[in-house]
Design brief:
18% strand; 4-stranded antiparallel sheet; 12 helices; 5-stranded antiparallel sheet; disordered N terminus; globular; 305 residues; alpha+beta
């Protein structure tokens, strides 16, 4: 069920109270993709270093064994971490890390690279912890995905790599679901994911993400959240880390960048994103990004229309 900004606010106890009826991730991941690419399946022996690469994260699954993980710098993660049970290790942002395994019969891993659309500017990558280490036993329902993933990596078959990549993307989505349901246990920092984990703010964020071109105001957003203007503005800033209008502007500009890369014109995008004209979108784009849409697209290697 979707609620337009001018619709009545649900009463406590109604079907839409809380976040159970909300799909909080699809609007984000449909517009800003995360693509997985499996690069290893099997034992890792000795020392294995994973370098930080711009816009690339990692998703490691420790199937069995014990591994010591070292990080080149803290950045909110332990410099040394010992993992001794089946665990998912998720690095949403570039962070160099090194696995230390026994030189013979090392730990058994299945690993994938993660390519985030927009790199460091990906809305979810910005609002995730630098490392999520989740024992598989804590993740309900994960056993089915992992059983399929491990079966695909056991033997070479037609389409194996493509299917394994898609299964890693399913695994990533399940990890994000867990973080939304357990933001404190997952140490989710201030950012988009923390806002989506908040029952009242999630209703607003889903609306903004699904319908960015609607005439959103502080009043309509606060009404959708079922809060006063001042309480809503304070809660939004406290959880998301920026004012509601700033988040909406950044979301619209992020969609404009995606659209430009896909060959759409500024004029086409302006109407969809709630701007009165192409000139209005170009003006805001230049103020926020530091380049005109044409110059930005040229710097990305695109062909300005």
């Amino acid at each position: 069920m979707s609620i337009r900004p001018d619709s009545p606010v649900p009463r406590p106890g109604s079907a839409t109270d809380g976040v159970a009826a909300l799909d909080r991730l699809s609007a984000v991941l449909e517009r800003f993709r995360v693509r997985a690419r499996m690069f290893h399946a099997g034992p890792l022996c000795g020392v294995t270093h994973h370098a930080a690469r711009p816009g690339v994260g990692f998703l490691h699954v420790l199937r069995r064994g014990t591994v010591t993980v070292e990080h080149d710098r803290a950045d909110g993660v332990p410099l040394r971490l010992v993992v001794s049970e089946p665990t998912v290790l998720f690095y949403p942002r570039p962070l160099a890390h090194t696995f230390h395994n026994p030189p013979v019969e090392g730990s058994d891993f299945t690993c994938a690279w993660l390519a985030f659309d927009g790199g460091a500017a990906h809305p979810l990558a910005q609002g995730l912890p630098p490392l999520v280490a989740l024992p598989i036993a804590q993740l309900d329902g994960l056993e089915h995905t992992l059983a399929l993933l491990f079966a695909e990596t056991a033997h070479v078959r037609c389409g194996q790599r493509l299917l394994a990549d898609r299964l890693f993307e399913v695994l990533l989505l399940q990890v994000m679901r867990w973080l939304l349901d357990h933001p404190d246990a997952g140490r989710v920092p201030t950012g988009l994911l923390a806002g989506l984990a908040h029952p009242s703010l999630a209703r607003v964020l889903v609306g903004l993400h699904e319908r960015p071109g609607d005439p959103w105001t502080l009043d309509t957003m606060a009404a959708r959240a079922g809060m006063s203007r001042s309480a809503f503005a304070a809660a939004f800033r406290g959880h998301v880390g920026e004012p509601p209008a700033e988040h909406l502007a950044r979301w619209r500009l992020g969609l404009a960048q995606v659209g430009l890369r896909n060959g759409r014109s500024v004029k086409q995008l302006a109407g969809d994103l709630g701007y009165a004209s192409a000139a209005a979108l170009s003006r805001v784009f230049t103020q926020k990004v530091g380049q005109s849409p044409r110059d930005w697209l040229r710097a990305q290697g695109g062909d300005p229309a």
